[in-house]
Amino acid sequence: MATHTFALLKQRDINSCIERACDAVSEWESAWCPSSGIEIDCSETCDPSVIQPGGLWTAHRLTQGSLVWCYCPTEFGKQAERLIFDLNDALRSTDRHRESALAENVANEAVDELVALLLNRLAGPTTAQLEFGTKPADWQFRRHSGTALIKITIGGKTLSLLIPSERLPSHEIARKSPPREAVTPLPVALNKIEVRLIAELGDVEMSLGHFASLQLGDVINLSIGIDQSLTVFTENRCPVGVAHLGKQDGNRALEMFKIPHN
């Protein structure tokens, strides 16, 4: 039996999805129908029953090979048509409009463009390959699958996108970020010589005492309650690190970083 990695959809993932989806919808509205009243939501997939019946799944292959999925109910295209041509139900049901294939084709083109914009902003470029009728695997609807469900709603009809967690916008920065350099412990920077350390914040100078050993994240009780960076010097004003004051278990955590040599 196949097993799948446990994954959590973090709040930063949801926030990134909603932000980028809003950008895509705004671009689409400016081209097709300003003030469309589209509603946007993002959550973790947990139950396939949230998908409205009466639509079609399409699988979109990204340029790097992954699949993302789109589910579009038939009624979603009709709602888009009403928006674009400013129709009410009475006008849309007239024989004259019902026989117009042009309006339907325009609406379908608009929906296709909306899907393309959303996928490009949320998951990256897609190829021209579409796999119609391909549904996501059942495990992607399980809680903690890490799959994001982005819902775009027009007039109560919802277009749904399923995107695996590793393709979400918040992972893009992590994928591209270079590895961080390892932090050098302060004792190494000081060659393990006991010295008196002085912290300086603007015009304020304070003594941190004498230390022969100080590690990243060590807790020191200080008399001030600030949350910003300090520069740390030895007695002879040689800078040896940057400290950051932050709360930890009610005390002040002094986090030391070695200043790189020029």
TrEMBL record:
InterPro entries: FliN-like_C, SpoA-like_sf. Residues 190-255 form the Flagellar motor switch protein FliN-like C-terminal domain. This is Surface presentation of antigens (SPOA). It comes from Solimicrobium silvestre.
